[in-house]
Amino acid sequence: MSILRTAAQTSVRSVIAARSIHSSPVACRTVTEAVKETAHKVNIGVGQTLAKGIEKGGKATETVQETVGVKTQEAKQKTNEATATARHKAGQAQQGAKEAKQDIEGNLKK
To answer: CA 72 → CA 59, 62, 83, distances in Å?
Structure first.
């Protein structure tokens, strides 16, 4: 019987030893946990990509607003210059009309 007892003890010890080798946390991970972890990594990656896209969109918006603002100011400045020139020309025309009227009246009186 001692041979049977020794053989039984040896086989029990080898089974326990084999289980302790294979019971690491990585080996105990289920398919559901693996899928959740992969989905989480994909979610983080997509979120980071979207954040970068939003940042680029914001920068583009700022650039467009700055460009439009500069162009608007340039247009206002040119409008003001054109208005000033038109007023000056109108003043000159009015002065010329007054002088012509005076010349005509002076010629008629003679």
So the answer is: 20, 15, 16
pLDDT in tens, 75-104: 889 899 989 898 898 889 888 888 888 888
Statement: residue 72 has pLDDT above 60: yes
Instruction: Name the H helices within the chain.
Output: 2-22, 31-109
For the chain, give the longest Cα–Cα distance: 161
CA of residue 62 relative to chain centroid, distance: 10
Q: Is 107 helix (H, G, I), strand (E, B) or coil?
A: helix
Amino acid 20 reads: S
Q: What percent of the chain has pLDDT over 90?
A: 21
Give the whole-angstrom CA distance, residue 33 versus residue 1.
48
User: Length of the chain in residues, anyone?
Assistant: 110
